[in-house]
Amino acid sequence: MRKQIVAGNWKMNNGLIQAETLISELKQQNQTSEAEVMIAPSFTNLWHAFESTRQYPIEVVAQNMHFSEDGAYTGEVSAGMLKSIGIQTVILGHSERRAYFNETDEALAKKVDTALKHDIRVIFCFGEELADRKSGNHETVVENQIKNALFHLKASDFEHIILAYEPVWAIGTGETATPEQAQSMHAFIRKTLADKYGQDIAESVSILYGGSVKPNNAKEIFSKPDVDGGLIGGASLNAEDFFAIVNAF
Ligand code: PGA
Question: 41 in ligand 1 pocket by Cβ < 6 Å?
């Protein structure tokens, strides 16, 4: 059975005090679903968030990391540093990293390798832009993003990979892919995996949908057979909204 996962990507929001408040509100929420719950605070809040959720079924994950082991990379954070404070999962390839920080498929392939080498699980993000969808190229774009960054991996590596399909045109815009568009792309992603690694691997990988998932649309999106959860931006900054989404399974 594939894992159902709901991960909150806080992006560049919340100083220490706001993070403390949000975490204490998250801890008061009642989880009725079986989904794995994750939050991704910024680097400055990771240690505090990790410590204060130790006794709770909330995993604290990082939003990014560098591909090098260590060295002269001012402003960057390594896999070893994440591991040293207990972090076990990292988001890689978010469209904002690709668009504003020029992250390429090649760099992402290296980041994936470094994460796996350190036993860090990867939430690998990808998705097409509006122009790709309009021109009918969305499947090709997504297929290439997956192939370029992940298809050098061994089948067994996929135990540590979670995929997150996030159409760029739906992120932070209030516009979501329809549940049918999400399902159709998720099925295509699973087929792409199956063609390369076989049906068993493809069936075992969780594929999350991201892009304006809210309490009022989560249930319908999560009801689709190939949608195994969500990567939530804006709505993860409010504890009640976030848990309404967690409980939408
Ligand atoms: P959003 O962000 O839910 O605010 O659209 C999703 C994401 O970027 O992961």
Answer: no
